[in-house]
Amino acid sequence: DGGITQSPKYLFRKEGQNVTLSCEQNLNHDAMYWYRQDPGQGLRLIYYSQIVNDFQKGDIAEGYSVSREKKESFPLTVTSAQKNPTAFYLCASLKGGTDTQYFGPGTRLTVL
Amino acid sequence: DAKTTQPPSMDCAEGRAANLPCNHSTISGNEYVYWYRQIHSQGPQYIIHGLKNNETNEMASLIITEDRKSSTLILPHATLRDTAVYYCIAAGYNTDKLIFGTGTRLQVFP
Predict the structure, then answer these.
(1) How far apart, in whole angstroms, are the C-alpha atoms of residue B56 and residue A29?
(2) Per-residue pLDDT for chain A (112 aa), expressed as one digit of tens each?
(3) Which residues of chain A lie closer than 8 angstroms to B103, CB-CB?
């Protein structure tokens, strides 16, 4: 089955700890994205990558880091520098030459 | 990308058509209108998009006014499973970024 997987669905961490969220896709898509969603709000772009070994900051990149070592994988690290990390995190991918983003099921991160 | 304006919430009876409006008065000539929806605690799902002609697919129809300043997403026979937040986005083709606002929360009731 082709698609985007994010794991885990729920994640709890203590304040001050870094945490890495997984995003994998087997759609052979070129571009991948990370969004953050707070309750009752729309999605805000954190980072995106159009090609392996390259990525760009989105609107709210501070306190986050990413890597794109493989086409299939785009992990997001929420660092201790992120002041308010508790949120719903969504990963998406897009095939080059098309205009439709496909989203994963999301990871709900709670920092205690 | 152009800003879009949507009503915060709408209700629709099951089996009836749901018509969701969107204003995008500052849309530029090369920007498309995209619609996504998000069912509670899931990732958004692509519905449809268009440039200036009306579009229809298996999920919905998109009606864009002639001046392109507004559009309407039509779910012809709404079901309870269509209850979701619907996002209207104006963006260039193959854009790097989709700007999701707060959308319209559609509640379909029996």
Answers:
(1) 25
(2) 569 999 899 999 998 899 999 999 999 999 999 999 998 888 999 999 999 999 999 999 999 999 999 999 999 999 988 889 999 999 999 877 667 889 999 999 999 8
(3) 42
